[in-house]
Amino acid sequence: MILIVIVILILIGLFLVIQFKTPPSGNDKKVAIALCIKNPKNIETWLKLHRDFGISRFYIRLEDTPELIEYLKAQPDVSLVVGDSNSVDEYVDLMSRQSKMVDTSIEFCKKDGIDWLIHIDCDEVLEGNLEEIQNLPNNVGTFWMQNYEVKYNKIPSETDSCFMGSKFVDCSKGLCASYANGKGGGRVDVSLSNGPHRFKSNLKEVKLSSVIVKHFESCDFDQYIAKYKRLAKSNVSEIPFPYYKESILAEGDVDKLSEIYTKYRVSNS
């Protein structure tokens, strides 16, 4: 009789545990980043910031930077693709290479058990709570994150950290020199690449409220000059940003570029 009572009590206890246990939070979901990089500044810091954020894996296309190959190959959480950036119109061609790298990364993700993939650049940093992505409901296939752009209090030099800025403006309010439509991510099993800023799927898209993208455009003045030398052959009429257009039309004139950089990127307050 006592044995029967004990068995019944054990069964009741198991039932209560099953009924009232806390549902899984989803924070076991793995999130990865895909990106194309060329002569990145402070890539070690960039990787650490995103490892600390909770990113599980990085799918990197490295262009024209052979000195970083061995370093990136040695990183256990990096899958590396090495390529070049030969192009006629760098503004258009880069977006094409980025889109292809996202497609390649989606296939990597399926093999690596990654649940969500984000596309950002090496001068951009994610901030917020990663669990917002990990806990997205099953009817959500894609998401996007608002971008904020750094404003420096002086023109940053080569010796300054890429991520030193502390003042940011909300790009949704039209205050940024570069893009304003955010960056995106997608659920690996349903998502397809749709250019560098968005993913697409047959499921719902949401805007995240916690996770944002902080954009440290070009990082410093030397990288800014190098960027617009690369863009020199681009069709300016296809570019929507006055900052880009003015920088390209300066044709490498350092004084003009300094004026443009100050006008768009340095805060007056």
Structural write-up:
The structure is a single chain. The chain has 269 residues and is an alpha/beta fold. It has a domain of 154 residues: Spore Coat Polysaccharide Biosynthesis Protein SpsA, Chain A, CATH 3.90.550. The protein is 34% helix and 23% strand. The strands form three sheets. The protein has a seven-stranded mixed sheet with strand order 3-2-1-4-9-6-12. It is globular and about 90 Å long. About 6% of the residues have low confidence.
Which characteristics define this entry?
269 residues, alpha/beta, Spore Coat Polysaccharide Biosynthesis Protein SpsA, Chain A, seven-stranded mixed beta sheet, four-stranded mixed beta sheet, 13 strands, 23% strand, globular
- Tell me the helix content: 25-40%
Strand order of the largest sheet: 3-2-1-4-9-6-12
CATH class of the domain at 31-150 and 182-215: Alpha Beta
Largest sheet: 7 strands, mixed
General shape: globular
- The SSE string, one letter per element, is HEHEHEHEEHEEEEEEEEHHH
| Total number of strands | 13
Number of helices: 8
CATH topology of the domain at 31-150 and 182-215: Spore Coat Polysaccharide Biosynthesis Protein SpsA, Chain A
